[in-house]
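Many introductory courses stop at the sequence. We go one step further.
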Amino acid sequence: MPRAAYLPLLRRWGFSSFLLTQFLGALNDNLLKWTLIFLTMAGMARGASAREGANLAAISNLFVLPTLLFSGLGGWMADRWAKRRVLIAVKACEMGIMLLAWAALRAGWFPLQLAVLFLLATQFALFSPAKYGVLPELAPGADLAAANGLVEMSTFAAILLGSSLSAPLFHRFRGDLGGLGWVLVGLAALGSLASLGIGETPEPTRRRPLSPRRLWSEIVSGTRILRRDPGLWAANAGVCYFWFAGALVQLAVVLLGTKVLGLGATGVAALGVVLAAGVGLGSLLAGRLAPGEGGQGLAPWGALGMGLSGLALGWAGRGRAPLAWAALAGVGVSAGVFVVPLNALLQRGAPPDAKGRVMAANNFLGTLAMVPAALLVDALDGPLGPGGLIALSAAGSLAVAAAFLLRGGGRAVDP
């Protein structure tokens, strides 16, 4: 099995600049999101109204809604112009958004802060199709799986760093949140500078005009392309399952930590760190081991690991905390091994003139898959408890592993 090498890939200035660009963007997203969460929690601690407490739900929804609304437009942009140009232009918009964030934090007006969060999530929705569509152009051939591993690892590293830095920064600038706003502006400026180093990418051979219908027609068109190819559709279904299971496990782990393991807020947050770190490590492992250009043969084994680790996690209770921590790490590592080869397969198998549409459709469907996860947790927490919810997710992962193995160890999903 040929193994991808990370160091030569990182030495390519065009790719390493792209990696730094998307890392700084993910870091900024998390810092702003957690700052608003801390502001809301501070208001609740002062005895604020139930309406203000509902802002936590608003913060969560504002990160999902723009993806559903604007992924199609992002896909059209990624297929309309060279993806490098799209990445630079969309990244430059982050500067304006963060200047508005500085004003909103300094003024202390929460509705404006939420509006900024919506704009930042919209920028992410426009950035994402080009972000994933550009990888076959910056890291073609056997480097594609390794590139995906680095992107996923750096994304989760940004989540971990943002989660770790957010509280100290919030307390440092609590008396003058405008200072924290300047930190966000500075990170956006660094990301914009880094984007200028992204490697050159080809201009599309066909340029389709923009119309209001593009918001939805790009998603429909990308979904049809996925449906026409059984291998691409299977990979898309796997990625959607990754986001569904991730949302379900993340919510259930919070309940497990508080209700079953008896952990406080710090302990529950640490569980989230272990899960995210596991996904990052698994992503690197998948990129290192992925054979050839896709490595999709790893996917069923990743799903199997998610299932077995999930069963162990669901069984963990009081007095079995060490098992819970180890099992949660196993879930994260297995999830990274599962999703990285499927992302590489989607990027490689999509038609060259439709990669933006395909990635936009996958992004839209993956986000949509997270909705029933939240509904299941709300409906089944009472009868099943957090351990039962995690076991349910584990059963789904085992079923996904069986489906891929029955298709020939992943070979049948190769387009």
